[in-house]
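Researcher: Following up on the earlier apo prediction. This time include the ligand. It's magnesium ion, with the SMILES given after the sequence.
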Amino acid sequence: MLLKRSTTISTSTVRKFTVHPNLLFDVISAQAGTIAKAITEGIANSLDAGSTICNVTLTPTSLKIIDDGKGFGEGEEGLNHIQTFFESFGHPHEDGDARIGRYRLGRGQLFAFTANTWRTGTFQMSVDIKRRGLDYDLKDNLAAVKGCTIEGELYDQLSSHDFMTACREVEQLVAFVDMTVKLNGKTISKDPAKMKWDLVDDNAHYKFKESGPLSLYNLGFLVRDQHASYYGVSGQVVSRKKLDVNFARNDVLVSRCAVFRDIKKQLEASAGRKVERKKALTSDDRDYLAMQILSGCVDDPFEPKVVTDVTGKHHSLSKIFFFPTLPVCVAPTAHDRKGEILHGQGLSFVIARTTLDRFQCDTVDELAAKLQKAWPDQCRWEAKTLDYANATASLNDQNRLLPHKELSWEERLALKTLNDLSRTIFWAIRAGLAQTGIPCEDFKPRDFRAGESMGALAWTDCETYVAIERRHLRTLHNGLDDVFNVLMTVCHEASHDEADTATHDHTLEFYERFHNLAGASAVKWGSLAVRIADRLVRLNAEEGRKSKNALLRATAYASASQKDPEFSEAQLAS
Ligand SMILES: Nc1ncnc2c1ncn2[C@@H]1O[C@H](COP(=O)(O)OP(=O)(O)OP(=O)(O)O)[C@@H](O)[C@H]1O
Ligand SMILES: [Mg+2]
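Model: Understood. Below is the ligand-bound prediction.
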């Protein structure tokens, strides 16, 4: 028997996705960021309504926004307006019909934070999405009023901290709106047209700063703070034209926004001029330049100093790629002690990990590959590399204090010299610390000790002793310049506020203390150096040792200075 074949014919139809009303509810309640953002949406709407002033009153429990704009209108026209633009979410805008408004959603943020009543023209709309969901009350035929007033009761009361934060955030968000915006009676917006800028073009007002983020404003409303390394500049940019922003209005849709693309070009040109002008680059400048190098946007990739070595000095890429004289090694942290030893001994060019981070690479080879891709016509770069763990395995970074009997006569006499004068030296340093405002009640004279170290010139336990590395100690015999160097080493050690016997980290605070102490007028570094040289010459003589000529010359200063107290300083200054 033959089976009957199925005769079903396949069909195809075009269908449409639809939206469940719950989605609208979710969009309204979930798009909200902060109460400050919601208030800013209200202010943006006032601007779009052509208002000259928008008066905001915020308390921990209530919100009021009053403007003098065109409102929603009256009668039929007003009703139509309300039905199309207030009642319905997402109604498309026509090109140029609003300065800020874009998605016809923004008022939802006010709904999310408050139960509110809108009074405009002859109408009143009352909204309370928490209690009534998507239903709202509309009243008509009321006495006509100008503008629009929104009065809301906050769903969640603000703590005093949240209240203050909200006020501050609103101020930041509307800083350059060209309409008077008042918050609790205080004017918080400035018209950019009436301000001084570094640069104004068709697209934006630009104000540049030396450091900090780059704050981008869409027609005066803050969009976002961008890290300075991103475009290479810090400061403020206030667009004069509408930017294409995302729903949350906290980012620009760069691929769609032609205005921003032009602004970006202007920023990049300004970054280039800034970097040319500036002698000392900041770490943000270096991060930016690294990205510019990788994207092929600089004239010469070997010029900018974007390679930071382990000691904190900066070099160009040629140091590791062009004609590398040493193998490159990557230290895990800046000022890594073993890395500094390796670097100092000239065994390797040790770069700090930050250099690779700057180029968003994990290894030097990866960096080389990225650079070759960006600059294929340049010579082939090959960096010889050393593994940090292997290279430093045999390095002894321990400091050892030397017993007296191990010292040579030069070391012994140099040490005695310093110890004979230790009270003079440390009380002078204490006066210097006091002058620069560094707490020094507990600062007492310390003993000088001789030590041995592969990497450190000196170290201290910050309490009882300062150890000077034996080779450094011996240089005291070489003359006034070396005496002065040793004295600066002591100044360095006195600037540590924690023992540097185990680690040798130098924080920014350390450098500041060192800088202030070295420059403190209360410490007569020159006179101290002369006294040290003079004492060493005498001790040498007492033991029948011959002092070097350069050291003897220093004593001429000393004896002259004893006759004329002004002599030494005058001589040393000349
Ligand atoms: N203060 C006001 N005065 C007059 N009309 C207003 C006011 N606030 C809102 N409207 C009307 O309500 C509409 C909806 O506002 P809503 O903030 O939701 O959307 P939008 O401003 O058009 O776009 P966006 O989602 O980008 O904010 C506005 O387009 C405007 O027609
Ligand atoms: Mg809006």
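Model: The chain has four domains: 21-187, 192-277, 293-393, 400-573.
Researcher: Noted. I'll compare it with the apo version next.
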